[in-house]
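Notes, p. 3: input format for complexes.
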Amino acid sequence: REAEDRYIQANPRSAAIHGASQAAMPGGNTRTTLHYSPFPVCIRSAEGSRVTDVDGHSYVDFINEYTAGVLGHSDPAVKAALTQAIADGLTLGGPSIYEHELAAIISSRFRSMERLRFCNSGTEANLLALATARHVTGRPAVLVFDGAYHGSMLYFSHGASPLNMPIPFFSTPYNDAAAAVKAIERHAHELAAVIVEPLQGGAGAIPGDPAFMAALRDTTRKHGIVFIMDEVMTSRLSPSGVQGRLGIKPDMTTLGKYVGGGMTIGAFGGRADIMERFNPTAPNALPHGGTFNNNVLAMAAGHAAFTKVLTPEAIDRMNARGDELRQRINGLAAARGLAVQATGLGSIFGIHFHRGPIRNGHDLDEGERGREREISDLKTLFQLDMMAQGHYINRRILGNLSLQTSAADLTAFLAALEEFL
Ligand code: PLP
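Output follows (421 residues plus pyridoxal-5'-phosphate):
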């Protein structure tokens, strides 16, 4: 309560904006994930690795737009490309000079995406990939994994969201290859697709075991089921995503977040024989619209990001820094014998007040049973404490680095964490 009182005292403008925003938005918020009690800080501006709120506090950003902010804030090359695109005119209503090049770069990095199409969000990319898989296989159902987040209407935390698409879904525990293979073999005749996050983000930054991912690839191939890797969040984990790290080629891949250089974007693609069904000159071509699919700001910003900033070396450096951060967090916790651990891969991390192995959300639930209140209080305290010391992190303690997160930013974060421990 004391920490919360201090937070309220320190953030009068954010409190007022939150109060006013209740009038037209439920809970004063247009994205459930951005809410935390008593109210979230309202961000006014951002530059490099930092964000500044309306009460004037500057934070090192560990939220980074929920992993979309790979570039950090206000990258000069992306800003210049956007300025040029704005000067040339918006909402052009035809193919522009950018999209074919952006598509070609993405296809060259994510080799499974032999052909791809753009859309407006990761959610839309997943909905389109699933609809495509259902069409090409003529089968209705989809295998997902407990805890998965593929978008607001494709959400499987502790059961299925009431808003989920009316598609027959089967689900098995994440990282349990035997259970997945069994479910696939049992339901093969009705399964259109298996969709998986190569690292479950929302469920706690839990990486997929290479053997689990390989089992999904092999079993789906055997049964003619479309294997979809949702790399909306994980494509940042190597220059060619987690599929590149693992050497696994899915039938379809979905992207979003940073590939538009910070602008609104989604992309879905895969095997040429699947995606060529969208070719408007193909017999019975599949219809795929979307007024803003090739909106010039996303195309120009994405193009600048990939050609000028997101070099393979820069991506590798960012992920190596994340690996080191995780190692050091775990070192600090182990030295004190505390039930605290960092999960994740490369530049994505989660911090859990949990001792045992974390292979999926069930492990977390099991380890936290009977300690729910304590853990919720610890997370609240941790977030408020870290924010008071200038580190912007969410209450679930799922964080990530950007290309701009510096060694000094990480040293300060680790010092604050050590103090908290
Ligand atoms: N899939 C995954 C794995 C995600 O992490 C997200 C967003 O966090 C989505 C899909 C949905 O993307 P969007 O928020 O762009 O709709």
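The first strand starts at residue 43 and ends at 47.
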